Amino acid sequence: MTRVFTDTVLAADIAEGLARVKTLFESQLTSPFPAVNDLCRHVERYRGKMLRPTLVLVSGLAFTRETESLRSEHSIIAATVEMIHMATLVHDDVLDDAQVRRRGETVNFLRGNEAAVMLGDYLISNAFHLCSRAHDPALNLRLGEVTNTLCEGELVQLSRRHDLSLDENTYFEIVRRKTAVLVGASCELGAQLAGASTEDVVAMRQFGEHLGVAFQIQDDLLDLLGDEATVGKSILRDLEKGKLTLPMILHIARTHGAPRARALEAIEAKDSVALRDALTASGSIDAARAKAVAIVEEAKRGLPQTQRSHARELLLELADRIVARDA
Amino acid sequence: MTRVFTDTVLAADIAEGLARVKTLFESQLTSPFPAVNDLCRHVERYRGKMLRPTLVLVSGLAFTRETESLRSEHSIIAATVEMIHMATLVHDDVLDDAQVRRRGETVNFLRGNEAAVMLGDYLISNAFHLCSRAHDPALNLRLGEVTNTLCEGELVQLSRRHDLSLDENTYFEIVRRKTAVLVGASCELGAQLAGASTEDVVAMRQFGEHLGVAFQIQDDLLDLLGDEATVGKSILRDLEKGKLTLPMILHIARTHGAPRARALEAIEAKDSVALRDALTASGSIDAARAKAVAIVEEAKRGLPQTQRSHARELLLELADRIVARDA
Q1: How far is the alpha carbon of A268 from chain B, nearest alpha carbon, in Å?
Q2: CATH number at residue A300
Q3: Which of A73, A117, B97, B109 is the most interior residue, by most CB within 10 Å?
Q4: How many folded domains does chain B comprise?
Q5: Cα torsion through B133, B138, B139, B142, rounded to 10
Q6: What predicted TM-score, i.e. pTM, was given to this entire model?
Q7: In Å, how far is B148's CA from the nearest CA of chain A?
Q8: For the segment B101-126, what is each residue's pLDDT rounded down to a tens digit?
Q9: Which residue from B39, B91, B125 is facing A117, i.e. has the nearest CB?
């Protein structure tokens, strides 16, 4: 798969595209008020993998002739999806009472929940304003639909916190809404703006949604198995806050009596070693990991043929990286 | 001014318009998840005066011939501005740790801050989605600008909490952003959608912004002087949370030594009687009230001539009611 990076034209196209996205992101969030700018500069430190904007650009390039360039709307949508994502991170940290994100302190920890709530609102508002700058009502409508669904997923998840009866189906329903729709829309809109056929646009959305679900399962595994210094945020946070993760849901479904109780006690005691042992013994960790890999394979199988084959290969590689990452 | 209500055609137009707005508002917030719907039905109880949608409709009617009707976009924008307003109420209650709103318990008090944060996000997202249903990119762009400004105002206000050096100019800068721009946009867009001239659209925005500022000063006065049962929310809340209100800013500017200290001690002790006495003695309450009345008069003087004169008279009456209200 290293072959992809020997396509220097593609690599340059992506690097240029991401640079434009960063510029757009920063200029959109420039305010006359230092108090506002300070908070925005803090949030920009959260920007890590830039997975969603990368998917917009690569999905766009996949359906663009090598002699042609991406449209300016690609940059707008790429920066918009990243800004929506940032808003969810800022508000998620309030919901989770999180102190650390990307090895730095969270806005809520540094400046209080009030500032974090309002900063998240400012990011959501700017995301919609930025998207409107594309002057295409269909984009606004689609992204509004996506964020409606995303918030619904968060609200349903909240209503089921500490609910041990949460089953696998409901878990996937929540994750599809909370995480997968935005990743799906990134691939979908990237391809659509490049003029892909309706059929390919739908296939790209499905590809992205599968990636989003696999991404969430990998996050669940990192919450359990990750090294705090590498992941850059607190471990066991999801479980402590009563969010059932896939390994835990599988463990509850597979065990009764003492083994189930041991895992719940380990969460209570914040004993990550005991929890890992319990979930390893029940095979729940392996089963969750296998599920994530299977979903990535399904995504790759469904990836349509594209105009530019190296971009397609990069999409396949990005899919693999989702379940290989340790941060 | 009772003459307005003898214009039964106008009254019927407004009542019909508001009924359409309510229907649109409720249908937009219908989710397949009971957990989401429960929260939305709770928020609909906050809907009180419907000032902003009323201003959209009346501003629209003012520039519409009596033989013609409002456009469907008027209902969309009216419901959108109300939804944006509801989102700010829900998040403001989180910021203010408020327990009571419109004589009912707040979402944060009933369901926790997490649910209130996410419900507010759901309302913002749905507001933008609803607005996109008008398929007019200029509307999205304008409302995105409005909510960016609104959030900036909130962030600046937050950064100045408990800051006794906050002066009148900064207060008005915050209030213009936090409260007035949305009211201004309601009048502006109502008129614009009805085909008013650019000059009249600008004048309508200014009219609305003045109303918004006067509205906030009246809110400040009610926080100090209001009867809890009538206002329907906690009194002295703003001051307790370190938000300087106009009467308090004027008092700080007018007093030194003991009279200033007495007011600050009264806030600390939640002694509303002592606080009223101190601010009455310094003339700060009368001065704030006079300011609100002067701003309403300025608004009324700037109101342009319109197509339908009874609608214009109603706008003048709505302006007067802003400073006459006790809830």
Answers
A1: 21
A2: 1.10.600.10
A3: A117
A4: 1
A5: 140
A6: 0.94
A7: 6
A8: 777 888 888 888 889 999 999 999 99
A9: B91
